[in-house]
Amino acid sequence: MAFERTIKQAFDKLTGEILNADEVFHKAKDAFLLRKDFHKDDVELYCLECEQKLNVSTSKNDRLHFKHNQNSNFCLLKDGKLSPGEKEEIYKIHKSKESDRHKYLKNKIGEKLSQLDDISSVQIDDKFILDEKERRKPDVHCKYLDKEIVFEIQLSELSLRYIISRHEFYQRNGIYLIWILDNFNVDGRKQTERDIKYLTEYQNFFKFDEKAEQFRLICKYKYPYLTEKNKLLNKWETKSIALSQLKFDKVTKQPYFFDFSNKTKKKKQEQIQKKWELEEQEKLAKKERKKKRAIEKSNSIINSLRESWSTNFYYGRIKREIENLSDYELSILNDNKAFKPKNEQPKIHHWFKIAKNKNVHFLFFILDCEQLKIDFNVKSANDETIIQTLMENKNLIKKDYLIKQILKNGYHFQEKDIVYLNNLYLKPKQIKINKILCQLSTKISDKSLIDDLFDHSSLICIIESAKRNKIVGFDYKENEWIAFANNAIHSYRQYWEYIELAFKHYGIWDKLIKSDTNRTFRKKLREYYDNNPKQNFDCDKLFKFLYPALCE
Ligand SMILES: [Zn+2]
Fold this sequence. Notes:
By secondary structure, the chain is α+β, with helices and mostly antiparallel strands. Among the domains are: 9-81, no CATH class; 95-258, Trna Endonuclease, Chain: A, domain 1 (3-Layer(aba) Sandwich), CATH 3.40.1350; 456-552, no CATH class. It has helices spanning 21-24, 28-39, 76-79, 84-97, 100-114, 160-172, 191-199, 260-307, 315-323, 327-334, 347-354, 360-368, 386-392, 399-408, 428-441, 450-455, 457-468, 481-491, 496-505, 508-515, 520-531, 540-546, and strands at 9-12, 17-20, 45-46, 54-58, 64-68, 119-124, 129-130, 135-136, 140-144, 147-154, 176-181, 204-208, 216-226, 232-242, 247-249, 254-256. The strands form 6 sheets. A 4-stranded mixed beta sheet has the order 6-9-10-11, sandwiched between helices. A hairpin with a 5-residue loop joins strand 13 and strand 14 (232-242). Helix 8 packs across helix 10 and helix 17 (457-468) packs parallel to helix 19. The radius of gyration is 55 Å and the shape is rod-shaped. The mean pLDDT is 89. Bound molecules: zinc ion. The site of zinc ion (ZN) has 8 residues, from helix 3.
């Protein structure tokens, strides 16, 4: 292994020269001459790193080298356990300190600082700062208000150990350190550039602003921002700032212009807020899309219904389309203005007024489609009920069926509707039955039972006759109760239990027995009991609404 000298350079204070160890010790003659000079005090040698005195020492094999005194303070070159590469960097720094650029910068900085009101005690390369461990001589030292600031100019690459050592020294001594990084490239991939970035949490880097008249620094700082897509990114900004624009972190002793981490925290909060807003916007957009789709479907159905007004071709398809709608889409359909009153006339009255026989399928469809929420109790612009409107339409037949469907759709039959039923194209007996059924419909709150009511019209008329003590819905004369009862037991034997119960409950039974002089009724009754025919109870639910007294 080649012999490697730890201290490669020494500064001779008497001549102002930097002596290179390898050069001066290369020739044995020069080397021992130097050793002689040293002992004669003709040279005064100092370490360029710690500025402590060095001596010329000899090792075995008569190798001469520079050496710190045994009782000297800490020095990177003595105690730093540096690698050869790290040592090399420190020598480069020492060399650069002697460069014209370095001298120019420290003098300019010192000179410009001296012109500022708040600055005092500017010292260029002339101030030793000592503590129990080390001593340093910063490039520029000054007092700024109540603070002590040093400027270290850096032209060459720095080793991390060098940076940390400087940083810790000044921090320990309560002094704010500003690196003047002359060739620094924030985007650089060099080790030095990466090291220094992660050492300073504010990520503010300074250059001396040579163009400014007064003292200014060019600060390069990382700036966090949100993209349009809410991504948090950073970019480098550059700004020329006055000393008064600097802020000072009392804990880390770092001066900074822009607080990157604090701004990043705020941006992260902004990002969360924006994320929420974007989500809300998306929800709203989704809702809008949903609404738009529902309106499109609704319009398409309305158009199909318009086309179907005069035909019955499309009802099956339209019915399926309506059945496939979601609850929301259905609410949009029911909200369509096609179902809203026009000139204060509810549409239902309009349709029932103008419809002709060829349009009756449209009315059937409207009445049959339970998904359509149409109010059949609403009065016309002229205060007419839907039954009135229907009955006044001279162009429609099948009105009895339409009336039944209207009742099924929740229409509350009105007393004033009764008279309009006379206009039905039916036999008088059938009109009377319809009147009875329509009146009874008001007692049935479960409208699905309206079909049962109309399907059992004769049975209902038998019970009603008993209840009213007057034969209704049959062609019997007023006193023909036996014939009426004989017909009932003959034709409605599967419901006879209901009928007998009603006859007894409403007091018809005794009258029947009394007036059964030919015993025809009792004969039929005996026949009935002998055969005991199966009873049909499919009207139980209906009777609970119509004749609760019979169901107790
Ligand atoms: Zn030293």
